[in-house]
Design brief:
With 553 residues, the chain is α+β, with helices and mostly antiparallel strands. 34% of the residues lie in helices and 19% in strands. The strands form 7 sheets. A 7-stranded mixed β-sheet has the order 1-9-10-4-7-8-3. A hairpin with a 5-residue loop joins strand 7 and strand 8. Helix 17 runs antiparallel to helix 18.
């Protein structure tokens, strides 16, 4: 007899231990379980299942109350009264009758992006569905193969299960093997949920934001298939914006009674609060058509108030402070139907939720405003100037893979949050950063603690993306190269009195030598790494010939 065990976590559970909205209807599998089940990419598989497992599971359901049922729209508390108990018991009786076991045929499916799951769980002609008995962090599934027959044994544990439990568990964690072009976006967002996408017009800057939001849903989910997933909002910036009234809103007294007119950004914040386990993406299109420091001042301020607690929950100061006036109470009623969210707003004001990701698209030309260091210091910057004319012709949607809260929503804000558990890697990054900062000494481009923190976070967030043929030293060096471009070079601009050729040459040498110290084979003759920071410095040196240079194209 062969077997493999899987513990059910939130994603696969029908019953949650806390109110969470989820549209998941399938059972996610790892590659190991897929291979164990024969590796049939798109076929049906019949399991032998046992009646006693579900009778016992039903008893555990009652003992573990309160529990919550979830859908993509809401999470409701379960009132497991005698009527519901009888309904579940009748389903078990209808499936098994007087037999100890029964056959259960379901669909084993592997998507093009590599995600594997069991679906079509509800049998025709019955209400039986194995997933309807699953409880988050309490259910254990054992897949068994003996004498050519597959079995599923299942139990609900009264005690909450631990991810470190001594069991042959197979946790449904999504693989970090995303297509390489998307890794920098994902890890930058997890490091700081404020991203600038710069590049020439038409390179797909706003599209990639929409596609990242779409990737948070299963391929057969209505949100994935829709034109605009509900976790995505695009706001077009107008050239005449000089305050936050269009984004956040304002108090109107035209009628004689104060009324708060909410902006689209504030409405989207409230929606994100209602669904904390789903990453929400706000795209500010053509962000620098107006002065960002003016119309986005409140966000730029509160994003720096982020603090993480011991459980990885991140909170900020309110972007709209609470008020005892009637207009604020009326506003909270308008923004949300959730009592939990409304009470939070009334008690604490409206702050930035942990799952909100703000992405601004940027074009640099004579019609736009340049960014101050106040903005650049607070954002991660990625350039999108490369164009593949053959790309996007074989598939309508980006092949990103399934994303979720674990991949996109960070649980750390400062270097201290991750240093102790990643000391060796962080020390390498700090040594590199010190060498680069020595070259910035005496200039307005010298970096301080905020950038230090974001460098460490970005490097650590890249560690899970190490591939089998890569060394950790290479992964760290690549991350340092990328974050140098995002956070250090993006701040450098000026004429020859501020930015000389000698300065750029010295900085280039410091970056290259620093990266080689982290990974000695990085620039080996047989397969040299193309460092984007060094390539950008080369561009900046060429621009300096005109008397002025900048990171921005």
């Amino acid at each position: 007899m062969e077997k493999i065990v899987k513990i059910v976590w939130s994603q696969d559970a029908f019953f949650k231990t806390e109110p969470k909205r989820s549209g998941e209807t399938s059972i996610n599998l790892s590659n190991e379980i897929f291979d164990f089940l024969g590796g049939v990419e798109n076929g049906y598989i019949t399991f032998k299942i046992y009646k006693e497992d579900y009778i016992k599971a039903l008893g555990a359901l009652v003992l573990l109350l309160p529990l919550y049922k979830s859908s993509s729209k809401e999470a409701t508390k379960v009132n497991f009264d005698s009527k519901l108990f009888e309904y579940y018991y009748a389903i078990i009786q209808n499936k098994f009758a007087n037999n100890e076991f029964a056959n259960y045929t379901i669909h084993l499916f592997k998507r093009d992006d590599g995600r594997i799951y069991l679906n079509e769980l509800k049998e025709n002609g019955t209400d039986f569905n194995i997933r309807m008995f699953f409880i988050q962090a309490h259910s254990i599934i054992t897949f068994i193969k003996q004498n050519g027959v597959y079995e599923i044994r299942f139990k609900n544990s009264i005690e909450e299960l631990s991810k470190n439990q001594d069991i042959e568990e197979e946790e449904p964690v999504q693989s970090n093997d995303f297509s390489e072009p998307y890794r920098p976006y994902i890890t930058a967002i997890k490091s700081k949920p404020f991203l600038l996408l710069a590049g020439i017009s038409g390179t797909g800057k706003s599209r990639i934001v929409r596609e990242l939001a779409r990737a948070c849903w299963d391929g057969d989910d209505a949100e994935f298939l829709s034109q605009k997933p509900r976790n995505f909002e695009m706001i077009q910036v107008k050239p005449n914006w000089h305050d936050s009234s269009e984004l956040i809103g304002y108090v109107s007294r035209v009628s004689g009674t104060p009324v708060f007119v909410a902006g689209d950004f504030l409405k989207f914040i409230a929606r994100a609060w209602e669904e904390p386990d789903v990453p929400y993406f706000l795209c500010l299109d053509e962000m620098n058509l107006a002065p960002v420091e003016q119309y986005f001042a409140e966000y730029l301020s509160v994003i720096e108030s982020r603090k993480a607690d011991a459980d990885g929950n991140i909170t900020t100061d309110p972007i709209l402070k609470k008020s005892a006036e009637d207009w604020f109470r009326n506003l909270t009623n308008e923004l949300t139907v959730s009592d939990v969210v409304r009470n939070r707003f009334l008690n604490e004001g409206i702050s930035i939720p942990q799952n909100l990701i703000v992405v601004g698209t940027v074009n640099m030309d004579e019609t736009t405003f340049s960014f101050s260091r106040k903005v650049l210091d607070r954002a991660m910057t990625i350039e999108m100037n490369e164009v593949d004319l053959h790309g996007g012709l074989s598939c309508k949607n980006e092949q990103i893979g399934k994303l979720g809260k674990d991949e996109l929503v960070g649980t750390a804000v400062e270097g201290v949050d991750i240093y102790e558990n990643n000391k060796e890697v962080c020390d390498k990054a700090l040594d590199y950063l010190q060498k680069v900062n020595d070259r910035l000494e005496g200039t307005p481009f010298k970096i301080a603690y905020r950038t230090r923190n974001e460098v460490l976070l970005y490097v650590v967030n890249n560690l899970p993306y190490k591939k089998e043929d890569e060394t950790q030293e290479f992964v760290v060096a690549r991350a340092l190269d990328e974050i140098t471009n995002m956070k250090i070079l993006s701040r450098i601009e000026g004429d020859e009195t501020k930015v000389s050729t000698e300065f750029l040459n010295a900085l280039e040498s410091a970056i290259k030598n620093g990266l080689e110290e982290v990974c000695g084979s990085l620039f080996a003759d047989d397969a040299p790494y193309n460092a984007i920071s060094l390539a950008k410095l080369g561009e900046m040196k060429k621009r300096l010939a005109s008397g002025y240079t900048s990171f921005w194209s």
